[in-house]
Request: fold
Amino acid sequence: MIRAGTKPLPLRTPPMELIMKKFAACALSLSLLAPLCLSQNAAAAEQDAAADAHQVVLKAGSQPSRKAGPKNFTGSVRVDPLFRAEAPVRTYATSVTFEPGARTFWHVHPTGQRLIVTAGVGLTQEWGGPVQVIRAGDVVVCPPDVKHWHGASASTSVTHIAISEYVKDMGARWMEEVSEEQYAKAPALTD
Ligand code: MN
Reply:
């Protein structure tokens, strides 16, 4: 209540400095909110895309086995496709079975490779290193661009799942074959 005879307080004009501070605070909060709005839009777009995507069960028996060609493999090698690289995923996997004596040529993978041995006893070697025995349950971690080969032992077959990535449509760069002399340096399997 304003009593008669009292003088109303004069309205204070805020100093310019305060106005500028408030403006700066407002601009800052807007600039912080803008990316939030953008990320919310992106998240919504992702949700829309996810709503259109569905899991797929690749049924056993739906992907025919094929023989690996003699251009990059020695001996009898069977490839069973598991999953293909589908953008944006670059990873692909195959199950590869090498008959006794069969092996890859020397090669490298642009982002490396993981081998999960699922059956039998096989061999692998990186350039300059010893031939190593690999058995069901072993996992071979091969770094990018490390020259190597893998395959069966001379007397037993091996099956491994190979997980690799494509870089510019290339999953492996193939080199010379593993010579009989190199292959013969494998240790005894019972060691
Ligand atoms: Mn390899």
Remarks:
- DSSP finds two helices and twelve strands in the chain.
- Residues 107, 109, 113, 148, 150 surround manganese (II) ion (CB under 6 Å).
- The chain has a mean pLDDT of 86.
